[in-house]
Amino acid sequence: MFAYYLDLALRSLKQNRVLTALMVLAMGLGIGASMTTLTVFHLLSGDPLPGRSGQLFYPQVDPTPTAAPALPGNMNYIDAVNLWQARRADRQAIMVGGNVKTKAAQAGSRPMSLHTLATTADFFPMFGVRFTQGNAWTAADDLAKARVAVISRSASDRLFHGEGGLGQSIRLGQWNFRVIGVIDDWRPTPHFYELDRESYGDGDEVFIPFLTSRDLAELGITGYSLNCYGNTMDDLHLENQPCLWLNFWVELDSPAKAQAYRQFLDNYAREQQALGRYVQAGSPRTALPSVMQWLDQNGVVPSDVSLKSWIALGFLLVCLMNTTGLLLVKFLRRTTEISVRRALGASRQQIFLQCLVEAVIVGMAGGVLGLLLALAGLWGIRHTPADYADLAHLDLPMFAATFAISLVVSLVAGLLPAWRACHIAPALQLKVI
């Protein structure tokens, strides 16, 4: 029966090619515009570490003398090291980034500015960073302030011209570091673990032990958001300065552990208040947001992307209404044909299904056109100066969503016209014939 409805629908659409083209164009424009913006929104607001982010948390404490509406986004050195050394989580990592002049240690190598992340050994297993060569440093290397480094595959290619960087030496500033591992290029979207730099920029290229970076403070790795709430500031000796500049993440693999860590964080803050480090009146403030809560708290998705998504959905609604009107006109112009079919025994349900099949064909054709327009729109976004521009690609879920939306929109557009068509009284039309 479906094949019969399909044949009738195709014949009907061919009879009035101009009207059919207008309906397909309306659907295509709406779907193309909405899928362009929804794809960008999907890429920017998605889970940066699927399957792992639910176990990652960002501890927050407030050591500042005056309570701001929101808790500080970074941590000072004393609090970060205290929490790291307490080892109350399954894994924990301090991190801070900066651009450092880097080159291969061989004579004649040209220096380049590479984004360097100073962190601790748990960073790599905690975030699931995949190694292509070698491995990460150990907790003992952290404490020994070892001059070792992990580099990305792209950094290895740039520094060593594709010859492989494992076991080689690189020069950061005026100091040599031995490369003990090479990772696959790692770029979570967004950079949830270090939001004080651009959220959708390039990934990190060089990783070194955090305590080593403080031992060699002249490297200048102090982050992108240095917020000092005291009267003095010394970028080279931030260990004892009242400054917020570090990121600290923990891994807790169960709700019970997360609850226990929240209690530990509260107790730690009260202890620091009793020691006189926290001077705010009342109970000290703490928080333990998960990855997705942290992204939502910081409003990571650009406001213009959210606005454009709503505008595009509004445009899709307008296109849907136009298509509904065109289908209604088309079906009501076939009252004679429908009346004859009813007189020959066709039920209202059969007429309704026939009209819906025709609407779905229009929707699917509009979906194909919309897909092409979305690909063109994403190509245009990739040529804009936005920091997320190179991420604008249509992935498999959004490809499938394009046709799923096309099917839903076409069914919605066809419901009213099909309902009106199946309720045409055949007797009046047959009298005219």
TrEMBL record:
Its main location: membrane. GO terms for molecular function: ATP binding. It is found in: Cell membrane. Residues 20-262 form the MacB-like periplasmic core domain. It holds the Pfam family MacB_PCD. Residues 311-426 form the ABC3 transporter permease C-terminal domain. The chain crosses the membrane at residues 21-44, 310-331, 351-379, 399-419. Keywords: ATP-binding, Cell membrane, Membrane, Nucleotide-binding, Transmembrane, Transmembrane helix. InterPro entries: ABC3_permease_C, MacB_PCD, Macrolide_Exporter_MacB. It is a multi-pass membrane protein. This is ABC transporter ATP-binding protein.
